[in-house]
Amino acid sequence: MFGYQFLNGCNPVMIRKCEELPKNFPVTDEMVKGFLKKGVTLQEELKAGNIYIADYKILDGVPTSSSQRYLAAPICLLYKDRLDQIVPIAIQLSQTPGETSPIFLPSDNEYDWMLAKMWVKSADFIIHQLVTHLLKTHLISEVFEMAMYRQLSAVHPVYKLLKPHVRFTIAINAAARENLFNKGGIFSQISSIDVDGMDTVMQRAMETLTYESLCFPEAITDRGMEDEPKYYYGKDGKKIWETINCFVSTVVKIYYDSDEAVQNDTEIQEFVKDVSFGMNNSDKFQKPLKTREDLSEYLTVAIFTASAQHSAVNFGQFDWYACIPNSPSTMRKPPPEQKGQVDMKYIMESLPDLKCSSLVLATAWDLTRFQKKELFLGMYPEMCFTEQPVKEAIKNFQMQLDQVTNSIKSRNKGLTIKYCYLSPNKIPNSVAI
After folding, report:
1. How many CA atoms within 13 Å lie on the side-chain side of 100?
2. What share of the chain is helix, strand, coil (3-state, %, to 5)?
3. Phi/psi of residue 90, nearest 5 degrees
4. Which of 350, 352, 331 lies closest to 342 in space, CA to CA?
5. I need a labelling partner for 228 at 20 to 30 A (CA). Which of 9, 182, 328, 419 fits?
6. Residue 280: which region, alpha, beta or left (left: phi > 0; alpha: psi -120 to 50)?
7. Which regions of 34-176 does DSSP assign to beta strands (E)?
8. CA atoms of 237 and 262, how far apart (whole Å)
9. Which residue from 91, 151, 141, 85 is spatially nearest to 115, judged by alpha carbons?
């Protein structure tokens, strides 16, 4: 279950295939040979593509909010076994190996191993909330929305296309700034870091944010996860990406009869510049749109991020965070520096207290509710488009989404844990919660 969540939990973007161990993570063959297939070495499994890693180095050195709350920057090594299950085989709770930062193993004392996994999930909670969820869906969608309002006229076809996918985004982000991520806000109350720490984490995340990293197929391939059989987030996400891209491409070709028409559309070119400016990362996000394919991909990024990606990383929060030990939002004791020093009492004293846990539960529940009149992917009740070819494209889009929904339902019948976060009938059109 611990490994499964790296594939299909709240934060399915941290895991990547490991081809070579980091120098600061000195796992040896002797340490893990008992957890691999008999007679196979760690190096052989690395070459075979059966070793994965989740590295939380982005948290290294981030200041904590108080002396009673602790933060770690762990590294977790995972292994795909004969059943195609992902299981943890080694955990280091810091980025600096040494006597005070042992590598924990499944063969260790059960409490040592249990607490090590909790520390990984605690780091994962923080990265999920600040980077995967807040930054890479909420705030990025807001950038597209602001650029849309600033640069595109209300009669522009791209304005009409994007409008359903920015519904309520500025409003929900304003509420988040006021209540969740402000000084003394809910996130500061439940996590190990305050506003300064949040700024540090998100600034570091921005350093690696590129346009390509928001293109779903490229992001999956970059992490080496494209062929993982039980990576339902990746499989379902790719289907939805392709469906959205097909729809957008159809609409783009209706209004642009050539690549030159895209190049000569000053509103679109200024829209792209404004998005780049809003990212505060223009050198890595500038994307000159020279062809209709460029424009289609660019708009697919905006729509997919606001709909499918947000759904994948938001609506599972209560499912996975309701059990506090599964993903502790903070830790009240420091990471163990030696093995054999941990018991259940130490673990209970490390986990969030009752008040903090209650606040996590309430927040997770609130964030995973649909709106009373939710508009799901493919719904266009306002029908801003009046041209018949676009109306036909929308109908085809809805039919394709229904096919994806049905294929996911069929697949889920054979699964012990159903993966529904990327079922189109459960994907809201926009970041609205």
Report:
1. 4
2. 55, 5, 40
3. -165, 140
4. 350
5. 328
6. left
7. 51-55, 75-80, 86-92, 103-104
8. 28
9. 91
141, 430 Cβ separation under 8 angstroms:
yes
> Where on the phi/psi map is residue 311: left (φ > 0), alpha (ψ -120 to 50), or beta?
alpha
The CA distances from residue 317 to 51, 115, 235, 355, in Å, are 27, 21, 20, 19
The structure tokens 């904590």 sit at 64
Closest CA to 31 of 98, 111, 106: 106
22-28 long-range Cβ contacts below 8 angstroms, 24+ apart: 22/53, 22/55, 22/75, 24/75, 24/95, 24/96, 24/97, 25/53, 25/75, 25/77, 25/90, 25/92, 25/97, 25/103, 26/97, 26/103, 27/77, 27/90, 27/103
Residue 358: CB atoms within 10 A of its CB come to 13
Q: What residues have CB less than 8 Å from 54, skipping those under 6 apart?
A: 6, 14, 15, 16, 75, 76, 78, 120, 124
Residue with tokens 């939380």: 56
Q: Using the structure block, give the residue that is written with the tokens 């109908």.
A: 395
pTM score above 0.85 = yes
What pLDDT, in 10s, does the model give residues 106-160?
A: 999 999 999 999 999 999 999 999 999 999 999 999 999 999 999 999 999 999 9
Question: Hey, how many other C-beta atoms are within 10 angstroms of the C-beta on 137?
Answer: 22
Give domain 124-426's CATH superfamily: Lipoxygenase-1; Domain 5 (1.20.245.10)
Residue 17: in which H helix or E strand, if any? strand 16-17
Cα separation values, 432 from 215, 278, 315, 419, 428, Å: 21, 20, 12, 22, 8
Tokens of 361: 């539960």
pLDDT digits (tens, 9 = 90+) for 344-384: 999 999 999 999 999 999 999 999 999 889 999 999 988 89
Reading the block at residue 106, the tokens are 């499944």
Query: DSSP secondary-structure letter at 64?
Result: P
**What digits encode the pLDDT tens for the residues 147-184?**
999 999 999 999 999 999 999 999 999 999 999 999 99
